[in-house]
Amino acid sequence: MITVDHLTKTYGAHRAVDDVSFTCEPGTVTGFLGPNGAGKSTTMRMICGLTPPTSGRATVGGVPYQRLGNPGRHIGVLLDASAQHAGRTGREVLALAAMTMGLDTARVTGRLARVGLTGAAPKRRVRAYSLGMRQRLGLAYAMIGDPAVLILDEPANGLDPEGIHWMRGLLRDFADRGGTVLLSSHLLREVEVIADRLVVIGNGRILTQGDKEKLLNAAGTLVRTADPAAIQALLQRMGLTGTPSTDGSVLVPADPRAVGRAAAASGVALLELRPAGAGGLEEMFLRLTAGSDLEGVSR
Ligand SMILES: Nc1ncnc2c1ncn2[C@@H]1O[C@H](COP(=O)(O)OP(=O)(O)OP(=O)(O)O)[C@@H](O)[C@H]1O
């Protein structure tokens, strides 16, 4: 279990992380979502004891990272896939990690295979690895000590769709065995398929958090009418503000039944009425982070 309790980090006058609190439970994958510069990496670095918080605290299994003996046996960390020694082979990287943790290096070959690094790949130097291969090695490195908790910063970065699908299976299996996963991304689509829970951050502050399905269900209703004036009449009747969606429909922040009833009562003919789901979550994400630096936010 990861507990983040009122964490704040300031750099001069800049609040990189501002009073952030959340927990990640065993058996779940939590997606930590936000645009570039939102404060995800800084929060993760504070959890891992690499950046001292200005205030607040973070614990893993109730203990601050610095106080964990042999931390790699408790928590697997992947903060920067390119941080591995470029001159070492994949096998050497994992063997050194195993030795540092006092583990038998006999596990290395199997662990490399588990992340898809087979054939010639384990014997190649990391400098010759693609970003996707580095991410796979980083995951094997994080998991070599059989930790109960994984903290992964943008692990899907550089993976192709097949690779993301594979990673989903790997992390799902880890969580189903009781593990706790926190992974960050600036791409909603990436996290959406992997995570059970979402924590959305913008400008250092938590914007929303909760169960992914609940957030999806609360994401509103997409409505389409032949006449734009009709939708305005409907929104006015409901006392709500709609958001034009990219596909020409309008996102209404209410559940489909309420929108249908209001449309019938006001005599508005609807061409389309459907739960917004993932599309709505994306609209919500963009809306919530609209005040943030949106560089890099895409599908
Ligand atoms: N060592 C540092 N010194 C000064 N400012 C920093 C430092 N580390 C991070 N920041 C600032 O803190 C803010 C949050 O950065 P952080 O890297 O945590 O964001 P992020 O959400 O991980 O973004 P990205 O997706 O781009 O990695 C940014 O404005 C960044 O410039």
Account of the protein in words:
- By secondary structure, the protein is of the alpha/beta class.
- It folds into two domains: 2-212, 3-Layer(aba) Sandwich (Rossmann fold), CATH 3.40.50.300; 220-275, 2-Layer Sandwich (Alpha-Beta Plaits), CATH 3.30.70.
- The protein is 34% helix and 25% strand.
- The chain is built from ten helices and 13 strands.
- The chain has helices spanning 40-47, 90-100, 108-114, 131-143, 161-176, 188-194, 212-217, 228-238, 256-265, 277-288, and strands at 2-11, 14-24, 29-33, 55-60, 75-78, 149-153, 180-185, 197-202, 205-211, 221-225, 243-244, 250-252, 270-275.
- The strands form three sheets. It has a six-stranded mixed sheet, sandwiched between helices. A four-stranded antiparallel sheet has the order 11-12-10-13, sandwiched between helices. Strands 2-1-4 form a three-stranded antiparallel sheet.
- Strand 11 and strand 12 form a beta hairpin.
- The protein is elongated and about 70 Å long.
- It starts with a strand and ends in an 11-residue tail after the last helix.
- Residues 293-299 have low confidence and may be disordered.
Defining traits:
six-stranded mixed beta sheet, alpha/beta, 299 residues, Alpha-Beta Plaits, Rossmann fold, binds adenosine-5'-triphosphate
How many distinct helices? Answer: 10
Query: What bound compounds does this protein have?
Result: adenosine-5'-triphosphate
| Termini gap | 30 Å
Number of domains as seen in the coordinates = 2
Strand content: 25-35%
